[in-house]
Structure formats: structure tokens, C-alpha cells
Amino acid sequence: MDSALIPEGAKRCAFPKFMIGMAVVGAVLLWGVYAMFLCWFKGLNQTNMNDYYGFALWIWADLAVIAIGGGAFFTGLLKYIFKIDELKNIINFAVIIGFICYSSALLILAIDIGQPLRGWFIFWHANVHSMLTEVAFCLSCYFAVLTIEFIPNILENRQLNKVPFFHHLAHNMHGVMAIFAATGAFLSFFHQGSLGGVAGVMFGRPFAVREGLLIWPWTFFLFTWSAAAFGPCFTLLVTKITEAITGKKLVGDKTIHLLAKIAGWMITTYMVAKIIDTIYWATVTAPSLGFSLSHFYTNNAFYGYWILIAEILVCGVLPGILLIMKSTRENPTTRLVAIILATIGVCLNRWVMVLQIMAVPVMSFDTWALYIPSWQEVATTILPVAYGIMLIAVAYRYLPVFPQELELNKSAKAAE
Amino acid sequence: MIQHENAHKFGMVVDLDKCTGCGSCMVSCMAENNVPFKEDETRKKDSITWMRVYKLTNGKPFPETEVVYMPRPCQHCSGLGDHGHSPCVSVCPATATDYGYDTGIVSQIYTRCFGCRYCMGACPYHARYFNWWDPKWPEGQENYLSPNVSPRMRGVVEKCSFCYHRYQLAREKGYMEEREIEENEYQTACTTACPAGAITFGDLNNPEHEVTKIVKPDPHPDPMNKNVVGKSRNPKVFRLLERLGTNTKVYYMSEREWVRKAGDNYLDGEWDKRKNHHGSSSDHG
Amino acid sequence: MKIDRRSFLGLGLGAAAGIAVSPVGVKLTDDSSIWTQNWPWTPVPEDGEITYDPSVCSLCPGSCGISVRKIKGRPVKIEGADGYPVNNGGACLHGIAGLQYLYDPSRVKTPMRKNGNRFEAISWEEAISIVAGKLADIRTDGAPETLGVITGSAAGSMPALFKRFLDAFGSPNAYEMPSLEGNLQLTAATLHGAGNTIGFDLENSDFVLSFGAGIIEGWGSPVACFKANASRKERHAKLYQIEPRLSNTAAGADKWIPINPGTEADLALGLCAVLLSKNLFTQGNFTGGFQKFTAVIQKEYSPTRVEASTGIPAADIEALAVAFAKAKAPVAVPGKGRGDHGQNLKEFAAVQTLNALAGRLNQEGGAFVMAQPEYLSFPEAAMDEIAEAGAGKEKIAGSVNKLIEDINGSDKPLLNALFVHNANPCYTLKNTQRVKDAFKKVPFVVSFSSFMDETAMEADVILPASTFLERTEDVPAGAGLPKSVIGLATPQVDPVFNTKNPGDALIQVAQAMGGTIAESFEWETYDECLEAVAADIWDSLSEEGSVVVAEGVPEGTPAVDVSYLAANPTSVEMKGEGDFTLVAIDNMRLTGTIPAASPFAIKTVSDKVLSGTQTVVEINPASAKGLKDGGEAIIATEQGEAKVKVNLNEGIMPGVIGMVKGLGHTFDNPYVAGKGVNVNDLIGPVIEPGSGLDAAFGIKATLKKA
Ligand SMILES: Nc1nc2c(c(=O)[nH]1)N[C@H]1C(S)=C(S)[C@@H](COP(=O)(O)OP(=O)(O)OC[C@H]3O[C@@H](n4cnc5c(=O)[nH]c(N)nc54)[C@H](O)[C@@H]3O)O[C@H]1N2
Ligand SMILES: Nc1nc2c(c(=O)[nH]1)N[C@H]1C(S)=C(S)[C@@H](COP(=O)(O)OP(=O)(O)OC[C@H]3O[C@@H](n4cnc5c(=O)[nH]c(N)nc54)[C@H](O)[C@@H]3O)O[C@H]1N2
Ligand code: SF4
Ligand code: SF4
Ligand code: SF4
Ligand code: SF4
Ligand code: SF4
Q: According to a count of CB atoms within 10 Å of the terminal CB, is the N or C end of chain C lower?
């Protein structure tokens, strides 16, 4: 039915089956859209946020998707700047995932603010001291860059590519892509960092505050590093999921192993820094403000030391080791375990740096503030997931996302 | 740092031994500043109270239990090193909250705030409140709203302004009469309402003002923590979370040691060391 | 067409520039944000010239001077008036929130008549003629004594005007709600002779021994008490608070002495006994059998006996008595909480006798025995034969609580008509169902309320009153103050609704009745009446806004008649069964007098007192027995039961449940009513023999997990 649009030689499921799948995910998406409109028209009273808990579930989702979307800028950096050509096999997909993550982040921000129609004040009345100003500028610019990076892939659609203008446009855009990749990497470096800075500069919150370098707290660098480290893991994870769903091998093992190896070393070095940071914070920064480590992990129903151990050891050090060791890296099962743990790890880190901050009491007579999101928050948080699935499905179906697809599935075809 | 020649530095000191927890300051603030109310205000975490009176206990069992009330307006933090980068001001991306170098007052511009709530997260005193709902008054009750403070709209943050409009009115009057304003001409609504006279408000830069006489702020950075400026030289006076370097301009005073200790966080055993360093003595409470 | 790199970049930049230059996007964006700053549903208060006008707050017996800030004549804020002889600046939260009452959703906006179960609006003419007609029938039936009146207090021209109406009508049945001032007058009458009252010179005392008096919780004239209390710090004066729970007063005191609930009189007499036995008392003007008194007190209230009832060690009692006697200017203060409801004469008399023994009567910083202010002079009321006949009849009961009991206990209607002014007995008196039942037995109830409160809902006709901000009235300050001040409340705004000064409504009813009743009310308006009857002080009152009629230490040492205590009156026992004693707590942020706390005041109430729509009760963790902090429980007494939440609190004696007064209103105002339970539904009255006071400070109760 839509075969004319499908990349030449590629095998895709029947159109009705595709549409049924889309309809199911689309229903979830509509649920999220409904919740989104509720938040816009009735206000943020639709959430369970309160004055103690001004950041909630979706802000965590926002930071988390930006972190795991970091595969795009980091892979782009490696491919276009460090010229690691092998990564051309996964760069398109990394860009799409990045695009989804960043567009989702922007959407979440548009729902999150109390006065969406004034959102542009952040640019117009910009306060240069605010990390959030830095985030807003870099995030928007980087989203524009991602869009530009995504366009050539779209134009490579079989029908669009027949239009000479689009064909040439795509070709030329590929030519200048290194400039955008460099810009993107730079912007990304800053906004990932600024997002880390968002927490680190809160000197009124001893759980969050970090000392640092020049105007940036250590969390600035840790966030950038962790996004670069864990983002590729998420790219690998989504690739794996896509492969599982389509029943095809889409990216060659060589590429996968290479990216996994890079991620492994990034994670390991990041964890060294993170552990040093944690120890310094726990033994120097927090005590100097009158807080012992136990203050942050006891006396409440949810946040225990388990979250620290889970984030740092189980979902940090462990996947790092699994990915740097050749045997476990090249074993599909242990590699899968590693990339799942790594993805959870970075999400946990963002959770801790957004939500646990709000929960920890600061004044000696304050109490822990725990928080349960409303269904509207859950729906709007799932909304980007549904949107991401749909976009990946459409892209996979109609665009030559995976350059190795045909080659890798030749033998399978022959066997049929 | 921009510092005006004759800059004021408004602040207050609350005598916790006098505060009765009566709530007059809270209501005076609400009435003065057009603070809205809703049907259920028992969820204190979404109840807008620019002035909130906390109840603290010494944690001891009956009958040794003691209680103290601690009124908490916005602390009008001057930030690390007293440079005007309050925790909230420095994070607001849209400059919707600002530090007045001529007054020391942290302002809030409702029409510019776009409701990102970053400032709320940054404020450890929970002094900032978000308008989760459209403020609504029962029919007729808009009639008592004051034109000196604009009613807020849904989706923006609000907080204690040290009754800035009262300063504006006093300043205008002084300007018209070509003179400086007097101590009693600018007093906040909570100060004047307090039946116990527990609150003293004035200019911490003016040695004649009562608040300065009580607090005796030290203009030099604390040798133990260079971020801390303006520490009181009165051993009975303390600030909330002073160690964070927020440099609040709301001071508290109490004869009771456990109350002073509750103002900040201390590691085990640390208080006794510091207390002795500070020169204050332990007293039975 | 071939696009090279240059033309591609050129095209891109051109498009970007084109969009940026076009004003459409910018304009729309800007407009939309400006729109959010001017949402039509966000009010824009009108600006104009600022003025300040003085008046007096009569929301509680405190009678504080207030200053009303107005913008072009529109009141926007109430503040305490500087220089006013009661409060001198500062006001309590209820007074400051006073403007909210003007526009309260539960205001009675126009006269009402009950038709079946519903109220219907009627005109003032119709309302007045209905009331006058019903009353005329009662007189025609020859039973004028079956008209009763309940007023909030006995002081000032309004109660006097109602009393005058009864005189002219022919009924002795005027009643007042329990109040601290009433209790002090009764105490003074018992000890020092009728026509007196007692004031406490707290601001000059160096040792205040408070028998549970909520000195910073609404006792007496609240703001004056707050100020006197706050000045303790500079004066190095002490406050000892005797109370079963750590109230705010106890928390602010130098010493908190927990005591078994309801045994304050025992302690006061125990202290008297120590003074007597250690010969630490001052010989005064004691009458009524001082020898007998001494013997009885020393025998019945020896420290060991008092230890047994109060739970305070005998040695502490002796030490306390000595400390009290040795202080320079000590004063003992009676009246648990606000000192109005649930009080007993025995305690008041015992505490005042302690003052007398310590030589503290009419001494600076002591207790003043003062004549009740006489500043009103009404001309003799005209009375016809019916009136003469009725006025000679016996009053049904000695107190409003007894009246309610008697009405319920009688098969025939004791009252055919009842006026209620400035009182909400169907909420404030104990066992509210009993009060409502009594009201149902009165065929014709007229309410002069400003609000559709619990009592107004029981009325047959409502003649809606203008609030204190909309009417003129004299406001005498009493309630334990060591001076007498008369203030003048003046209208700060035209009546917001179709209401009248209740004085005007009453005058119109009187005039509609004709005859001698009309003759007794020959004023055009209430304002004219007030000016005439307060003529002695009118000039100063109307010019200054207040007149101080008595001030300073009264002359002489008053006589103290100890015969009441020498007879060793029995203490009131608590009713019911259960492991716990439920006591009602007075909380400054709630109120029992005005219809209910304002929305602002309710907003300040702790979530440890009210949680959602549930009352939170305090118990000591030691008596929790499986109850969790914040958990739900059922509290049950012989009067009823209620679902509450539990607050585990070290600041209350084990075995005692503290439950706040002022919640559980049932009228139609979502901001203040429908929240929590009315503690008066759980506690029934216990009438003290002799005084007629409802002395129930608490009741036995059980508390079980819900
Ligand atoms: N070129 C040019 N310049 C002009 C004018 C012009 O027409 N052309 N107009 C002049 C005129 S008319 C004016 S009025 C001035 C206006 O200039 P300003 O006098 O600066 O007046 P605003 O900016 O309105 O408010 C001053 C401060 O008050 C604070 N503020 C406002 N409302 C509140 C409140 O409710 N609480 C607290 N805490 N703070 C509040 C704001 O945060 C702000 O910091 O500009 C003058 N300057
Ligand atoms: N109660 C209250 N009072 C306020 C304010 C408030 O908010 N509340 N706001 C204050 C503020 S911010 C301001 S700016 C002022 C505004 O008050 P004004 O200074 O009175 O300003 P306008 O209302 O603009 O009136 C100026 C007059 O000058 C005239 N005019 C214009 N150009 C010229 C000219 O070239 N020559 C002459 N001769 N006349 C000219 C205009 O037609 C107009 O009649 O009010 C202040 N007063
Ligand atoms: S008004 Fe004064 S006494 Fe009352 S709570 Fe506020 S500060 Fe304390
Ligand atoms: S108290 Fe909070 S809101 Fe006020 S200045 Fe400090 S950080 Fe800002
Ligand atoms: S909520 Fe408003 S004031 Fe606070 S940081 Fe955001 S824009 Fe600034
Ligand atoms: S200073 Fe003014 S705004 Fe701040 S708490 Fe007091 S009354 Fe409210
Ligand atoms: S204490 Fe009483 S009289 Fe005084 S302001 Fe409060 S309610 Fe009014």
C-alpha cells in the first residue's frame, strides 16, 4: 500500500499491521495530549506539585531524556570531529533519538511552566547568572541543530529524494554537517553542563550544592560527562529494542562493539570522577554546612542509602566494567545488562539531582517532603515515550536510517 | 557589586521569647498584600503564606517539653559574601526576582515571572509560593483589595516583599518634603500588627535604628566562613541557616539555647564547640 | 536546478532574516504575554486617595481601637490604632481580618422569614410587622414574661436597650452568654459585693500565677494581655502557668506546672492553706467567718490532700505558695483558656481569695476591685399594667445554661418568644443538640444576627444586623482589664447589604407595637438614643473615640466575704466514663464568639489542629496505645462520638485529650464551616450548684483507632 515510500530493497511489515501498532501507541499519546491540555488550560493545579516540591516527575523526565539523548551529540562529535567513520552506521539513529529526546524536553518545559505564553521571557529578560538561562539558550539552539542534522535523513526518503532540489539539499547538508556537529557538540556540552549546574549552584540546598571551577560547580562537568557516557548506551539500547521488534539485525557488531567500548571507558572515567565528587561532598562540603551524610538518606520512607549504592555501584561502576571488558562487552547478554543498567543509572542520577533535592529537609525543624505524581503528570511524562516510539517507527519504515540494514539481512533473505 | 552611596539595608529581628504564635503577623500580611485563600488551606505545602509561623519543639518528653514559634517571612538573602546574589535571584532565568542594592530587598515581579519555579527550589526557607490556582475571592470580597499591591495571576511565584509598597509610599512622602524617611515611616505590616511587639524592623545600615542596635551586625566576613557576612555580635541573636552563606536580613533572638541551636544544622558535638567560640554561655531554659 | 553550498546558505539565512523581520510573530507573542498579565478574571483594585479612620473592634470582648485604611473611602485594611487606651497599636488576627466579615458568604443580606424549612426574603416593613404582631399576641394572651432575650454580653447600650424592651414589655427574662466579664462580676459579687468587677494589673506585676488563663490565647482583652505579657522580658517579671497542657501561654511562661484537669480550685485553696498555716498572709478586711474559713481550708486543702487531687507534689505546692507570697508584686489569675465557658465560681473565688490573702487587692501589679462603669442613663421605661404584672414574675433561670435545661425539662413552653442578639448559643453552649431542641420548643425566635449562623438557622424571623464596621455602637472594654474604657465604634462603610443597626431594628419593633412600649422608645434612631443616654461622656466619646472612665490603682482595701468558700462548696465532677479526659482548648487563631474565624484566620490554623475537614486531637505519646501520629481515631463520650485525627504531642499530660474549640461550624461558608467537629457536641454541661455556671471543663472519653 505504502510500498512506494519504503526504502528500496527493505522489507517492512504489512501496512495494516503497522497502522494497528501506531493506533495503539497513538492512543497512549492522545491520553498524554489530553493531560497536556488540562495542564495548559486549567493550570499546574492538575499536578501534585506543591511549594515544597516545585520540580516534579516530568522535570526528572526532562533531565533524563536530555541525558540519554546525549548519544546524539557524542556520537556526532566522534563521527564528524574525531572522524571515527565506523559510527556512520549508527549516527542517523543517534540523531533521531536525540531529536526525539530534545523535542520531548522542550515540550515538557512548555507544559511545566506556569505561564507558557511568557516562556520567551527567558530569552527576552535573560538573567546571565542563571543556569536555566544557559540551558534555555543552548537547548533551543541545539534542538535547531538536531533538526538540521535530521533533515538530510528525511530527504533521503525514496520519493523525496526523487525531487532534484531535495536530493541536492540533502547532499549539501551532509557536506556542511561537520560544522553543525561541532556546534551541536559545543552547545550540548554547555547545556548538559548547565543542567548539572542547575542543581550545583543551589547553595541553599546542601544536598545539591557543589564547589567547582570558575562559575561552574562540579555537577556541570559531571552532567556533561555522564550524558556523553550514558547517552550512547541508550542509543545502543534503543537499537537493540528496534532490532528485537523488527526481528532484523540493523547495525553491525563492529559498530556496536566500538560504541559500547567508548561508552564503557566514558562511564568508567565518569564514575571515578563521580565517586571523588561524592566523597568530597559527603566529607567536606556537606559537613561544613552542618550536615552529615546520614541526614540525606535516613528518617524517611523512600530515600535510603540504597539509592546511592544503586546509582553509583550497581548502575554505574558495574556497567562501566562490563563494557570495558572485551568478553562481557562482546557477549550480547552481558552487554544488554550493561546498557540497561547504565540507562537506569543515569536516570537515577537525574532523579537524585532533581527530586531528592526537593525532598531533603534543610531547616533543622523541617521534615522530609515526599511526593506522588498525579495521573496528569504520569500521562504527560509517558507522552514523549509514545511520541518517540511513533517517530522511530515512521522513520524506520520510510527512511534509510540504518545504512547496513540491507547488507546485514542479505543472508537471512537468501535463507528464506 | 553596585552599592549605592546611601544604600539602605532593611532587615528585621524577631524576639522569639516574645512571639506568642498568635498569627496576627500572618493575617496582617495577607490583608496588606492581597494574598488569596482557598476553601482548604490545611495542605500547608500549597498554602500561600508570605509570613509563616513555624512551631518548634525542643523534642524533650513531657513535662520537659518546650515550644517556640518562629515567624518566617522571606529572609531577603544577600547571598554569598553579601554580594546580592540571593539563592533565588541568582537562579531566576527571566530576572523576575531581583536584588535591590539600594534597599537590600528581594523583589518579585509577577508580570515577568513565567512560573518555572526554579527560585522555589533554590530557597531553603520555603519562602516562595506558587499560584497553583487562579486566585478567586468570594463575591464582593474583591472590595477590600488594596491597589498598592497588584493581585497575582495563576502560574506565577509570589513572596514577602518587606511590604515594598510601604517603602515606596514613605519614600515618596520624604521626597516631596525633601528629607530622608524616618525609622517609623517605613514599617512592615507584620511588624506593626504584632501585638507582642516581637518584631523590630529597620535599616541595618543605620546605627540609629533599633534593629541595628539589637543585631549589631558584623560588616566583616566571618573568619570561620568567608561567605558569611553580617553575623550578629549579639550572642542571643542568630540567623536561619546562617552557615549556608545565604546572609539573610531576618535575624532571630532568644535567651534559650535550644532555640538558637535550631536555627542551623550542626554535626554531633559541633554546637558546643561553636557556642563556646561564639562567647555565648549556656543557660538553663 | 542545482543548489551549491553558497546558495544553500544564502537561502537559509534569507529565510531566517525574513521571518525575523516580519512583525507578525513578535506582535502575537507579545500580545499573548500581555494578555496573561491582564487576565480579566484577575481583579484590578481601584486606586485613589488614602485615608485612615478610627473605630473600635467589637469582634471579641477585647474592644481594641482600630484604624481603618481606605482608598477613596473604600476600606482596604484594618490595623490596631496607636495610642488607643486598650491596645495602643497592634491588633489580633481576627480584628485585622475584620473586612472579610463584611463580604462573608454567610451574611444575612436581607430580612428573612422561615417558611417550613426554608428561609424567604422579606422586606423590613414586613419583618417588623410580623415581629410586632407576634409579640402583641403574647401580650394579649397575658403572658408577657414568656418573651426572653439572650445577648452576648451585659455591657453597653445594646444589651441595655434589649433589657429596656423587656421591661416595657413585661418580662424579667434577660440572659447573657457566659463570659469572662460575667464570671468576674459574679466573683466580685460573691466576695466584694454586687456592682463590682475585677481587673488584673498584669503589666505591673512581677509574678503572674495563672490558673490556666490563656493570657496569650484570648483571655480577657487579648491584645492588652499580649502586650503586658511581652513586656515581662524587659521587666524581668515571671509567669507561671498551671495547666494540663503546654498551651502557648505555658510555652511562653517561665514555668509550666501541669495539673490534673479541673483541679485548679483545689490548688488555689491549697496555696491559701499554706499562706494561712505559714502565717504568710496579710490581714485584710475579711468578713463572713474568717476563722471558719481558715479552719476549713487548712483541713480540706492541706498540701498532701491537694497533691492527691492535682497531681502536683506537696513540696512544690508549698514552695510555690512561698514564692508567690514573697514576690514583690504577685497576682493570681483565674479562668482557664479565655475564661468564659466551662468555668466554676469556686475556682474564681479561690484565686481571688489567694490574691486577697497575699495582700494584692488594689495594689499596683495586683488585682483591682472596681465598680462596674456607669456611663449610660436611660430615662425610666414606661410600663403599662401588663408590663407591671409580667415584670413582677420570677425569672425562669439564673443563667442561660439553666434556661436551656429548664425549657427542655418542661412540657409546656416556658418561653413563647425569644430574641437573640450578638450570640450563637446553638454553637457555643455545650451539647448543641440540647440547645437546638430548646430553641425548637420556643414558638417564635427572632435573631438579630449578621450571619446565617447555627442560631440564626433556628430562628423564625431574622432581622439582619449591620456588622461592627457598618454601625455605631458604644464598646465598653472590661474583661479583666485594670481600667474601664468606653470606645465608640462608628460606621466605616455604608451597609453592604439590606441590614440595620440592631438598635434601629429594635426601636422600630417597639414603635410598631405602640402604647407604652413605643413610648419607652421615643428615639428616631439608635444613634440618637446613644447620644442621649451616653450624654455624660458623649462629647469626649464622639471627639476622642474613647473615654477612660476609671484608671489606676483603686482606693482602699475592699472587703472580702469568705463565707462562700468557708462553706467549702463542692467541686464539679466530670461526667461520663473512659480512660481519657477530654478537655476543650482555646486557640488564638480560632474563635468561639464571632460567627466563626475568618478565611484568613482559618488559613493560619496549624495542620496539627485541622487537617482537611478533620479535627486533630492532641494526646501524649505515652497514652497513645497503638494510635499513630496523624492516624484516624474515634473519640467517644456519653454525648456522642466523632472521627478525628491524632497528634502525638509531648506537651500534654498523659491521659488527657486536647480538642480545639471553634471548629465544626455547620453553616454555609465553605471557607470556614464544614471543618472538623464542634467540641461542644461531645461535652455536656454540668451546672455548678449555687452559681448556675456551666462548669464542664471536660468530660471522660474513650479514643479508639478508626
Ligand atoms: N523614557 C521614559 N522613562 C520613564 C517613563 C516614561 O514615560 N518614559 N515613565 C516614568 C514613569 S511615569 C514611571 S512611573 C517610572 C516607572 O519606574 P519605577 O519607578 O521603577 O516603577 P516600577 O518599575 O513600576 O516599579 C519599581 C519597583 O517596584 C517593584 N514593585 C512593583 N510592584 C511591587 C509589589 O507589589 N511588591 C514589591 N515588592 N515590589 C513591587 C518592582 O519590582 C520594581 O522593582 O518610569 C519613568 N521612566
Ligand atoms: N495615586 C496615584 N498617583 C500617581 C500615580 C499613581 O499610580 N497613583 N502615578 C504617578 C505616576 S507613575 C505618574 S507618571 C504621574 C502622572 O501624572 P502626570 O504627571 O499628571 O501625567 P499625565 O497624566 O500624563 O498628565 C500630564 C498632562 O500634561 C499634558 N501635556 C502633555 N504634553 C505636554 C506639554 O508639552 N506641555 C504641557 N504643558 N502639557 C503637556 C497632558 O496633556 C496631560 O494633561 O502620576 C503619578 N501619580
Ligand atoms: S504577630 Fe507577633 S506574636 Fe503573633 S505570631 Fe506574629 S510575631 Fe509572633
Ligand atoms: S528567603 Fe528565599 S525567597 Fe527570600 S531571598 Fe532568600 S532565597 Fe530568596
Ligand atoms: S518562577 Fe518566576 S521568579 Fe521564579 S525563577 Fe522562574 S521566572 Fe523567576
Ligand atoms: S514584611 Fe510585609 S510582605 Fe513580608 S511578611 Fe511582613 S507583612 Fe508580609
Ligand atoms: S482582640 Fe478582640 S477586639 Fe481586639 S482586635 Fe482582636 S477581635 Fe478585635
A: N
